[in-house]
Design a protein that fits this description.
By secondary structure, this protein is an alpha+beta fold. Helix content is about 20%, strand content about 30%. The chain has five helices and 20 strands. Strands 1, 2, 3, 4, 5, 8, 10, 18 and 20 form a nine-stranded mixed sheet that branches. The protein has a four-stranded antiparallel sheet with strand order 9-19-11-17. Strands 13-12-16 form a three-stranded antiparallel sheet. The structure holds succinic acid (SIN). Succinic acid (SIN) binds next to strand 10, strand 19 and strand 20.
Length: about 280
């Protein structure tokens, strides 16, 4: 069966049809997927029945895997699991303990694990159980956001680095062992250029991590806050984004080097269970 690539028609994203990714992929299939991924940033595969080992094997076609991030609510964390590459995202509580991270709250715009020196280049998310409504995941194209930046904002971030806070998750919860940030200028995390060049496509993309506790290095606090507010208001414009409404068996792979994402809240009485892997990246430059 030949692979079909159907662009969403929005600023990013395409559906891939004609591939059962639980089966070994040919070199030609992998090459076609990598090309489509470079063009569309997020790829969607529907109706995939995958074990965790299938998910890991598929993800490895794109690179070496990172272990899952530490999170205060992820009690099914690396130590307790046989597959430390798998991060469970879920609101389900079993025997009084959450089986995964992020609960049912909104996850604000962010790029995954940008608080480390070498953040994962990609994340792969597979849906096992989803609520009737809510929990949609949106993506925004950071090449397009950079291209469309007003000249004064482009100039303001030229050559600048920002600190990407490591203390909180994308739903604003403190990670295990982290203390509350009282001054963003001294927040823990990693410093990255605010504009990065994609190592495969050569495109320039805004690289902001997340808004909470961010700080533009070397700026006065008020100046940094103003600039970050303006940049985030720009990135969140609908013309840069696409929203995915999940079905069971959907798998998305996205490129953290040139996209941000967010997740809607959902009814906490309904179950949402997703398994994610992270593909190692390099130091943004
Ligand atoms: C994430 O990877 O940030 C969570 C996305 C989701 O739960 O849909």
């Amino acid at each position: 069966m030949t692979i079909e690539i159907l662009p969403t028609g929005a600023a990013l994203g395409a559906e891939v049809r004609g591939l059962d990714i639980s089966k070994p992929l040919s070199e030609a299939d992998v090459a076609a997927l990598k090309e489509a991924w470079a063009d569309h940033i997020v790829l969607l595969f529907r109706g995939q029945k995958l074990t965790d080992d299938d998910l890991i094997r598929f993800s490895r076609h794109f690179g070496e895997l990172d272990i899952a991030p530490a999170s205060a609510t992820d009690y099914a964390g690396a130590q307790e699991k046989s597959r430390p590459e798998i991060w469970i995202i879920s609101n389900v509580v079993e025997n009084g303990r959450p089986i995964g991270a992020l609960g049912d709250k909104e996850a604000e715009w962010h790029t995954d694990m940008s608080y480390v020196d070498e953040p994962p280049m990609a994340s792969v998310l597979h849906s096992l159980e989803i609520p009737d409504h809510g929990g949609d995941t949106s993506f925004a194209n950071m090449y397009k956001a950079y291209e469309a930046l007003p000249a004064d904002l482009k100039q303001a971030i030229e050559g600048r680095f920002a600190n990407h806070d490591s203390s909180t998750t994308s739903v604003g919860e403190l990670r295990a062992g982290a203390g509350a940030v009282l001054d963003v200028r001294t927040a823990p995390g990693a410093k990255h250029p605010m504009v990065r060049t994609h190592p495969v496509t050569g495109g320039k993309a805004l690289y902001l991590g997340r808004r909470l506790n961010a700080y533009v290095e070397g700026m006065k606090l008020e100046e940094s806050e103003r600039l970050l507010d303006a940049l985030w208001a720009h990135c969140a414009k609908p013309e840069f984004s696409w929203t995915h409404q999940w079905r069971v068996g959907d798998l998305l792979i996205w490129d953290n080097r040139c996209a941000i994402h967010r997740r809607d809240a959902f009814d906490g009485k309904q179950r949402r269970v997703m398994h994610r892997t992270q593909i190692k990246g390099d130091s943004p430059r």
